[in-house]
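I'll show one example:
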Amino acid sequence: MRNIEAMRRKLDGLVSKIGRTVTFMEVCGTHTTAIFRSGLRSLLPENLRLLSGPGCPVCVTDQREIDMAISLAVEGRIVLTYGDMMKVPGSGTSSSTNSLAKMKSRGARIEVVTSAMQSIEIAKNNPESEVVFLGVGFETTAPGTAVTLKQADLHDLRNFSVLCLHKTVPPVMRALCSKPELKIDGFILPGNVTVVTGIQDYAFLTDEFHKAAAVAGFEPEEILAAIVDLSRQVIDGRFALCAYRVNDVPKTGNSAARKILSEVFETSDAIWRGLGQIPGSGLRVAKNYSRFDAAERFGLNAFTTSPAVQGNNCRCGEILTGLLTPPECELYGTSCTPVDPIGPCMVSSEGTCGAWHRFNRQKTS
């Protein structure tokens, strides 16, 4: 605690020198939760503003992709998913709007798994059923999906496929920097993602866009140290990537993880909730593994589907991009709560709205 108090005093001094409100964004949903849980917001100067970015995998999954996932839950298929996807509602305006959870309550065979590899045994044990795994997440979970696809190929699982909805973080960072209305001074980058990608993939933030940037782990001291460094970069006008975590972040990332990602997946465009289509920000199943591509097997394509309308005034897209904070959504804390969520930002355990509601029950930002 003494170390945190010393950093807090240093931060106060630095931000006072800036002489204006400074805005930093934490990109990772786990950072958002850690910041609230540790009470770090209460230690920050009044003229330092923290925004939560598009770092929750379920939250940034586009509505059309959610609808695609729900459409797979028909008789004769087993849909496997991580738990946070279960309650995200599909398109529509009524209380009967489908979700994976509601489909399951009506008899659809939908199972929650904690790792992609569990789907291999489920597919082996159910040869009469089509088994579809919903591949959602960033560079941290994509290698697990890649290993699973290689195992499916090794065992010649003809009843198995993956609906690949994986997205990558650096391209969305570029998209955020290209939105001048956001006025973001710097970014707290996710340590878990950069362990895979390497810190070099974020050099464009400092070199091209002249934004402060620092990688942080999820301990309060690491996050606060990153915020201190971001403030120092803004004052000095010299922007250079730094890393604040227990283990050093390798410059080139995890070579084994990067290798399997490049073997099993191809870079593709992807649709992000609140941001639209971002070039090169997605992963699709490579041609050598295309027989395990659920989108191809079942004729699904989010790009050829009309944009879905949620129809319930959910502002999740604007919250994900930092244009709004959760309390600025008229649904927050009233008709949209963790018990009865309307949008994915409240559904997911890493969602910004869920974190605000659990740790800060104020209706004002």
Residues 80 and 347 are 18 Å apart (CA to CA). The longest helix spans residues 2-18. The longest strand covers residues 276-285. The chain has 16 helices and eleven strands.
